[in-house]
Each structure stands twice: as structure tokens, then as C-alpha cells.
Amino acid sequence: xxxxxxxxxxxxxxxxxxxxxxxxxxxxxxVLGIDIGGSGIKGAPVxxxxxxxxxxxxxxxTPDPPTAKKVTQVVNDIVQYFDWQGKIGVGFPGxxxxxxxxxxxxxxxxxxHLHAENLFAERTQCPCTLVNDADAAGLAEMxxxxxxxxxxxxxxxxxxxxxxxxxxxDGKLVSNTEFGHLQLHGKIxxxxxxxxxxxxxxxxxxxxxxxxxxYLAHLELLFSPDLFIIGGGASKxxxxxxxxxxxxxTEIIPAQHGNTxxxxxxxxxxxxx
Length: 273
Ligand code: BGC
What we know:
Radius of gyration: 21 Å
Number of domains: 2
Mean pLDDT: 92
Helix content: 25-40%
CATH superfamily of the largest domain: ATPase, nucleotide binding domain
Order of helices and strands: HEEEEHEEEHEHEEEEEHHHEHEH
Oligomer: single chain
CATH class of the largest domain: Alpha Beta
Largest sheet: 6 strands, mixed
Bound molecules: beta-D-glucopyranose
């Protein structure tokens, strides 16, 4: 190759590389994820395709009582804190249908039948998508965590203030399943088996583990799942109660993103992809 030919080749290569960079930069999707929980409201900007936080998350204690007015103020504070002007995705601990909240068991009655998606969008001036918090966490684990590539029936459960659930069929979400509200011993399951029940009643890991087994056995009977993913606050303590889980027939693994899954998944839902 002559030296001129070599130069042209180099220039073409550089053009190709910079075009590739521009195209891949264009694929970067950033959304602010916000996870509303019974004890804290957490948020961070997320790079959706990589499933990574772009900054340290902020956490603000959930106002008491957690009224729509007070919590909306906190959501807006988080948007302002990051000086955010793009899309936001919000996870809420209740049934969410087309942007409207239908239940709010561990929140405040002022949420019920509120179109919170519109409320957050108006207040923050950012396009908003609202989803159930456990569905959001499940989306993150299925795309970027413990459930990646898993087919069949996968049930993700978040053990926190309540019990959240997300059901996936061949990787597709079946939203708003609310398995935490199944009845066990005449009570809703989350009153006996949530992480809050464990701490409030000062249950040992062994005793709480037995309750978890009983609950999961009930879900096994009803759904014959192929995989359980254990998420929420309890996922970081999985080693402490996994012994008890041996009694079950279904594979059980801990979530990989712990409490961050809710933020990641909310942002993924907010990207509308
Ligand atoms: C709510 C669910 C929520 C779960 C975890 C339950 O009380 O009904 O919608 O996913 O708590 O926050």
C-alpha cells in the first residue's frame, strides 16, 4: 500500500470509529428511577441498557403519614436534587393500572384512585411512567440480574415492609400479581412473613425462615413455578435463612441488585422501551 493509500485507509477507519461512537452514544438511554417504599423513597439516574446507576442514589425517609401530597413533594425533591429534566420512572407499593393507583396497603388512603402518573408528571414537569414497585424490581432482575435469560415461570418476591411479587412467563411480566396478599392462617401473608414482621416480632432467622417456607410452599402449590427469586431487604441476608428453604422443590436464588432493583426497574419502565 502506498503511503497515500495508507493515510486514506487510516482516515476511513477513524471516520468509521467515530460514526460507531456517535451511533452507540445515541443508544444511551438515561432515566431517573424513583422507588417509593413504606420506609424510604429512593432515587438515582440510571443508564437503562446497562442497568447501572449513573450517580449515588439518594434516600429520603417516607413522610409520616405517607399522604399523596407529602410523598409527591419528596418525589419532586429528588427530581430537583439531580436537576433532572428527562423521563422519570416511579415504582409504587400498590396496584397500578394505566397510571392510576388502585390500592395502597402500606401507604395512605389518599392514594387510592389517584392518577399518580399524571400528578408526578405535572409536579416535576418530567414525562412519567408509574408501575408497581415489585414489578419494577422484577424487571431489573430479569433483564440485568438473577433472572437473566431464564424462561418458564419465574416468581420474584420482595420481602420488605410488605411482600411484593412479580410473575414472569418466558421473560414477560404478568403485572400486579399481589401474592403478598394471599391468605395464610386467616391473615394476609405479608402480615406474617414480610421482613417488617420479622423485625417487629423479633423472629429468629430460623423461625422466620420456616414461615417463608410455608408461604413459598403455598405458592408452589398454586403456580408450580420454575424459579423463585428472593429480593427486597431480605435478599442480602439470604445466607442466614437459605438452610430452611431446602424443604422446597423449586430452585430459589437471591436477587442480585437488592434494594437497588426497584430504582433500576422503575427507570427501565420509564424508558418505555
Ligand atoms: C402491596 C404491593 C407491593 C408490596 C411491596 C404490598 O403491600 O400491596 O403492591 O408491591 O407491598 O411493597
